[in-house]
Amino acid sequence: MDLSRIVADIAEEMKAAPDRGTPAAYIPPLAKVDPAKFGMAVIEADGTCHLTGDAEETFSIQSISKVFALTLALGHVGDQLWTRVGREPSGSAFNSIVQLEFEHGIPRNPFINAGAIVVADILLGRNEPREAIGEMLRFVRTLAGEDEIVIDREVADAEAASGYRNVALASYMRSFGNIHHDVGRTLGVYFHACALAMSCRQLALAGRYLMADGMLPSTGRRIVSAQRARRINALMLTCGHYDGSGEFAFRVGLPGKSGVGGGILAVVPGRASIAVWSPGLNERGNSQLGTLALERLVQRTGWSVFEPARG
């Protein structure tokens, strides 16, 4: 299998795609990104890296950061986290407030906005927001092995200025006692985590521990237990694309996490870590071309978790 050729061919096909989706308009810096951008990085278990398109250009990873935040929070409090956040698909939009009323302020999963805000509250712990944000940034830099990764301050400020619904979600959960800190401080951690700026290559590097049973292949360091890595992957498969998670599993068949910046992190357990970026979103808020590119990748490689392993 010539993986470099497959990746290059998919990039050429994406150039000709007639429907590129629409960049997120409610966060002004994201609305300005060129919808013609497309990048893809595939990093195999042995470290072989296949890049195409704009794979070295940084973008706002947005909700993909929730995977890394969840990993850190589980390290802080372990399975106690699940007393405050569920593990079920939401079936609702990522910023929906409706379910919180019926479920007494417990968000369905850590990948919808409400769940990720609770995770940010856990990360805040007894720290100042600056310290919690710094911990998150150091963690992602360690995973990727790259100190150049930064938080895009313009994006973070824009989210804080326009994030009224997230303020409502946090305030509503605070009324149920599921946010323990000042709402503004918790949201500061959340907004800055979403504003992490990474390239496809850096993002694929950072996701390798989920491909390798919780180990960081470059150093042999254990990030999480094998069981916890499998469970994070399970949540990505069932909840990683909001109310489009079932469709993504149907079409792609890989654990994945999307962000409204147009990125998707996908994991092929034991085989590869993949990041794709195209800023145009579909009606569910997931990358239009990113999803299509991953669908074509698994068709040509047989990497869907629902297919028998090829040699």
Structure characterization notes:
The protein is of the alpha+beta class and 311 residues long. It is built from 14 helices and 10 strands. The strands form 3 sheets. It has a 5-stranded antiparallel β-sheet with strand order 2-1-10-9-8. It has a 3-stranded antiparallel β-sheet with strand order 3-5-4. β8 (256-258) and β9 form a beta hairpin. α1 (3-15) runs antiparallel to α14 (288-301), α5 (113-124) packs across α8 and α5 (113-124) packs across α9. The longest helix is centred in the middle third of the chain and has 16 residues, at 129-144. It is globular and about 55 Å long. The termini are close together.
Write the layout of secondary structure elements.
Blueprint: H1 3-15, H2 28-31, E1 39-44, E2 49-53, E3 59-60, H3 65-77, H4 98-102, H5 113-124, H6 129-144, E4 150-151, H7 153-162, H8 164-175, H9 183-194, E5 196-198, H10 200-206, H11 208-211, E6 215-216, E7 221-222, H12 226-239, H13 245-251, E8 256-258, E9 263-268, E10 272-277, H14 288-301
Antiparallel strand pairs: 1-2, 1-10, 3-5, 4-5, 6-7, 8-9, 9-10
Helix pairs in contact: 1-14, 3-5, 5-8, 5-9, 6-9, 6-10, 7-9, 8-9
